[in-house]
C-alpha cells in the first residue's frame, strides 16, 4: 500500500507540473485555470498541516499567480514526499484528528486521508483541463496511466511527449 501511495504522490506532482506549464503557455485569461490549480495546492497543504498538527500555510482556496503557484507547489511536493518517505504500514491506521472548514471535528485514518488527497487533486486537475479547453488552450494528459507510460519511457531512455 505504501508503494502505491508513493506512486500516487509522484503522479500528482508530475500532473501538477504539466498543468502549470500548460497554464503558462495558454493564450488568454487563465484565472479559472489557476483557481483550480491553486485549490489543489491549498487542499494538499491543508491536509498536510492536519497530518502534522500545525496551522496551514495556505487557505483551502488560495489566490495564487503562476510564480506563487510554482513556489507553493515545490514546497508542498517536498513536504508530501517527506511524509510518504517516512510512512510505515502501522501509521496508515493512525487516526488523525482535525476540524474541517466548518469547524466540525473528525478523526480519520492517515491512509484514508492520503488516498483522499490524491483523488481530490485529480478531480480538480480535470476541472483545470476543462478550463484550459474553455479558453482554447491545449489541455494536457494527466491520467495516472499517462504518467506511468512517461515514467517508464524516462527509465528506459525512450521518453517522448
Give a written overview of the molecule.
The chain has 161 residues and is mainly alpha-helical. The protein has a single domain (2-150), classed as dinb family like domain (Four Helix Bundle (Hemerythrin (Met), subunit A)), CATH 1.20.120. Helices cover 65% and strands 6% of the residues. The chain is built from five helices and two strands. A two-stranded antiparallel sheet has the order 1-2. Strand 1 and strand 2 (105-109) form a beta hairpin. The model is unreliable at 155-161 (pLDDT under 50).
Question: Topology of this protein?
Answer:
Layout: H1 2-25, H2 31-52, H3 66-86, E1 95-99, E2 105-109, H4 110-134, H5 144-156
Antiparallel strand pairs: 1-2
Helix pairs in contact: 1-3, 1-4, 2-3, 2-4
Structural class: mainly alpha
The coarse overall form would be: globular
* Number of distinct helices: 5
H and E order = HHHEEHH
CATH topology: Four Helix Bundle (Hemerythrin (Met), subunit A)
Major beta sheet summary? 2 strands, antiparallel
Q: CATH superfamily assignment?
A: dinb family like domain
CATH architecture: Up-down Bundle
Number of domains: 1
CA(first)-CA(last) distance: 29 Å
Mean pLDDT: 93
Unreliable stretches covering 5 or more consecutive residues? 155-161
Give the strand order of the largest sheet, numbering strands 1, 2, ... along the chain: 1-2
Amino acid at each position: 500500500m505504501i508503494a502505491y501511495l508513493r506512486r500516487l504522490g509522484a503522479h500528482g506532482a508530475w500532473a501538477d507540473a504539466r498543468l502549470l506549464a500548460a497554464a503558462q503557455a495558454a493564450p488568454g485569461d487563465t484565472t479559472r485555470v489557476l483557481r483550480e490549480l491553486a485549490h489543489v495546492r491549498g487542499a494538499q497543504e491543508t491536509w498536510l498541516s492536519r497530518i502534522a498538527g500545525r496551522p496551514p500555510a495556505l487557505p483551502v482556496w488560495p489566490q495564487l499567480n503562476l510564480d506563487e503557484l510554482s513556489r507553493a507547489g515545490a514546497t508542498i511536493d517536498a513536504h508530501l514526499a517527506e511524509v510518504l518517505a517516512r510512512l510505515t504500514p502501522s501509521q496508515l491506521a493512525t487516526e488523525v484528528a482535525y476540524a474541517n472548514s466548518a469547524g466540525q471535528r473528525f478523526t480519520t485514518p492517515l491512509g484514508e486521508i492520503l488516498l483522499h488527497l490524491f483523488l481530490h487533486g485529480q478531480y480538480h486537475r480535470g476541472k483545470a483541463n476543462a478550463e484550459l479547453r474553455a479558453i482554447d488552450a491545449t489541455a494536457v494528459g494527466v491520467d495516472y496511466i499517462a504518467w506511468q507510460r512517461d515514467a517508464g519511457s524516462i527509465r528506459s531512455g525512450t521518453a517522448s511527449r
